[in-house]
C-alpha cells in the first residue's frame, strides 16, 4: 500500500485539477461497496449476502444499478475510495477521522456500524498489563498508525506512560485472521494481538493466551469502532443510492438483532469459516457489550485523542462534522 501522505496528496491534487468534488448529473449505474472480514464488518456481510442494497435500489426505481463488493482491509479501502474504485468504504472511525481531516471534510461517514469489544491479547506470560510490554514483544494491528486498534494502543500508551508513541516500534500490520493464526501457531511473527470478534474468542480459548486490556477499558466505555464512509462527490450526486444503502443497513441490523441464529449462518457462509460453531457466533451476537447500530457512539473519544496527539490537523466542533446529513441521526455522540 502506498504511504498515506502520498495518497492524500494525490487526492487533494486531483480535487484541485478537477475543480473540487462537483456532483455528477445522474445517479450512478454501478455502486461498489467495500467490507472487511470479521464481525466488526458483519452489517456489510449481511447486506451482501441478502442482496439488501439491490432490494432497496429497486424500490427506489434503480433496479438496473449494478452492485459490486470488494473485500479489502481498511488501508486498501482508503486507496480504493480515493481512487474512485470504491463508493462506500467500511473501515475504522480512525480511518474516517484521518481522511476527513486530510480532505478538508470531503470524506465523511453516512452511518455508524457497531461498537464491539476488542481485546488486547498475548501469549507472553510475563505481560499482565500494558506496562509489562517490552521491546521483545510484537503487537499485531490491522493498519499501523491508522486502524482503531493501533490508535487505541496509542491511547493505552498515553495512559500508561504519558507518551502515545511508546509502543509504535512494536506494532506489526496484520489482518485479524492472520494475526490470530500467527498467535495460535506459536510463530515468532507476533506474540500479542489487538484483536476483534470472533478471532479474540478463538485466541482466548487457547490456554496459552490471556487478555491484557479491552478497548472499553481504554476508552472508558463503548464507542463506535466501524463506520460506512463515502466522498462528498458521490454523496451529493447519488441521493437515492445513499438512501438504498442506509435502508439496507437498517434491514441487516434488524436481522442481527431479531434472528441471531440466522445471522450466524450468514456469517459462517460469507466468512467461509468451517471451524467455528454457529452457537459461538450466536453467543457473541447476544453479548450485551456488542452493539450493531447506525447511531454513532462516543466518536469524539477517538477524534479528540488523534487531534491532541497531532495525528490529524483539523479539530471537529462536533461528532456530526464527520458525518453527512443522512448520518447525523438523533442520539449520536
Description:
The model is unreliable at 1-8 and 10-24 (pLDDT under 50). This protein has 2 domains: 4-116 and 225-327, 3-Layer(aba) Sandwich (D-Maltodextrin-Binding Protein, domain 2), CATH 3.40.190.10; 119-219, Periplasmic binding protein-like II (D-Maltodextrin-Binding Protein, domain 2). The protein is built from 14 helices and 11 strands. The protein has 333 residues and is an alpha/beta fold. Helices cover 43% and strands 15% of the residues. The chain has helices spanning 4-18, 42-49, 52-59, 74-83, 93-102, 148-161, 176-185, 199-204, 215-219, 232-237, 239-258, 260-271, 278-285, 299-308, and strands at residues 30-35, 66-71, 89-92, 107-115, 119-122, 139-141, 171-173, 192-194, 210-214, 226-231, 291-292. The strands form 3 sheets. Strands 7-6-8-5-9 form a 5-stranded mixed sheet, sandwiched between helices. It has a 4-stranded antiparallel sheet with strand order 3-10-4-11, sandwiched between helices. It has a two-stranded parallel sheet with strand order 1-2. The two termini are 32 Å apart. The protein is globular and about 60 Å long.
Amino acid at each position: 500500500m502506498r504511504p498515506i501522505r502520498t495518497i492524500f496528496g494525490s487526492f487533494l491534487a486531483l480535487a484541485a485539477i478537477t475543480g473540487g468534488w462537483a456532483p455528477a448529473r445522474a445517479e450512478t449505474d454501478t455502486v461498489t461497496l467495500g467490507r472487511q472480514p470479521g464481525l466488526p464488518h458483519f452489517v456489510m456481510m449481511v447486506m451482501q449476502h441478502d442482496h439488501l442494497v439491490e432490494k432497496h435500489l429497486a424500490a427506489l426505481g434503480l433496479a438496473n444499478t449494478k452492485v459490486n463488493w470488494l473485500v479489502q482491509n481498511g488501508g486498501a479501502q482508503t486507496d480504493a475510495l480515493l481512487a474512485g474504485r470504491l463508493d462506500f468504504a467500511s473501515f475504522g472511525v480512525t480511518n474516517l477521522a484521518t481522511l476527513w481531516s486530510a480532505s478538508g471534510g470531503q470524506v465523511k461517514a453516512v452511518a455508524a456500524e457497531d461498537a464491539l469489544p476488542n481485546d488486547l491479547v498475548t501469549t507472553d506470560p510475563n505481560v499482565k498489563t500494558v506496562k509489562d510490554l517490552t521491546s521483545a514483544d510484537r503487537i499485531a494491528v490491522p493498519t499501523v498508525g491508522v486502524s482503531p486498534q493501533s490508535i487505541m494502543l496509542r491511547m493505552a500508551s498515553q495512559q500508561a506512560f504519558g507518551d502515545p508513541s511508546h509502543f509504535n516500534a512494536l506494532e506489526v500490520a496484520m489482518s485479524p485472521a492472520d494475526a490470530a493464526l500467527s498467535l495460535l501457531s506459536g510463530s515468532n511473527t507476533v506474540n500479542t494481538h489487538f484483536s476483534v470478534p470472533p478471532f479474540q474468542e478463538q485466541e482466548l480459548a487457547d490456554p496459552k493466551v490471556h487478555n491484557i486490556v479491552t478497548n472499553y477499558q481504554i476508552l472508558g466505555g463503548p464507542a463506535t469502532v466501524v463506520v460506512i464512509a463515502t466522498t462528498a462527490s458521490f454523496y451529493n450526486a447519488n441521493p437515492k443510492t445513499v438512501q438504498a444503502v442506509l435502508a439496507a443497513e437498517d434491514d441487516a441490523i434488524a436481522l442481527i438483532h431479531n434472528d441471531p441464529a440466522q445471522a450466524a449462518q450468514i456469517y459462517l457462509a460469507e466468512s467461509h469459516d468451517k471451524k467455528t460453531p454457529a452457537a459461538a457466533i450466536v453467543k457473541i451476537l447476544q453479548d450485551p457489550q456488542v452493539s450493531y447500530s447506525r447511531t454513532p457512539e462516543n466518536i469524539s473519544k477517538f477524534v479528540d485523542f488523534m487531534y491532541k496527539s497531532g495525528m490529524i490537523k483539523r479539530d471537529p466542533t462536533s461528532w456530526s462534522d464527520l458525518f453527512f446529513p443522512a448520518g447525523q441521526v438523533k442520539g449520536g455522540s
